[in-house]
Amino acid sequence: MAEPPVLPVREIGTTIAEDGERLPTAVIDVAGHPEVADLARVHATDGIGDITTEALCLPWGEGHQLLLGVRVTVPVVCTFVLAFDLPAQRQVVDAAMVSERLVVATTDPAAAVLDQPLWLAIDLDAEAVAAVLP
User: Distance (Å, rounded) from C-alpha 27 to C-alpha 110?
Assistant: First the structure.
């Protein structure tokens, strides 16, 4: 089995849901990874699936890198890793632990206003993330 792709988090922010809920958001570049790029569409058409997460934190440069493994098993099988730079992206990690959810955006947020793309919302194992953070 191939190693899952490690996708650096390019930007962080907040997505405001239709009900006004503020959701922590990580923007990733999925170029070259169509299996990840298509997940939001698959979930929108085939229903919400089973998603699990696990975390590992490693020293990285002058800080740390949080590696958040994401495994989707239903309606398709797909595994990938989100790489957060800490402390620079700690704010979104902390917000995701509080809400136990993270939106994974696979398109440019500036284009989202006009394009209204589908983004993938995942449930987060906050205890597993908190256990590995420095």
Answer: 11
Contact 82, 70 (CB under 8 A): yes
Alpha-carbon torsion, ordered 106, 8, 131, 76, to 10 deg: 40
Contact 13, 93 (CB under 8 A): no
- Tell me, yes or no, if the pTM score tops 0.85: yes
Q: What is the mean pLDDT of the chain?
A: 89
Rounded to a whole number, what is the distance in angstroms from the first to the last CA of the chain?
31
Provide the H-helix boundaries in 25-104.
Answer: 34-37, 39-46, 90-99
- pLDDT tens digits, residue range 31-77? 899 989 888 888 778 877 788 999 999 999 899 999 999 999 888 88
- The CA-atom distances, in angstroms, between 5 and each of 67, 85, 127 are 11, 16, 24
Domain segments of the chain as ranges: 6-132
Task: Provide CB contacts within 8 A for 27, sequence distance 6+.
Answer: 9, 10, 11, 12, 13, 105, 106, 108, 109
Contact residues for 47 (Cβ-Cβ < 8 A; gap 6+): 75
d(CA 5, CA 70): 10
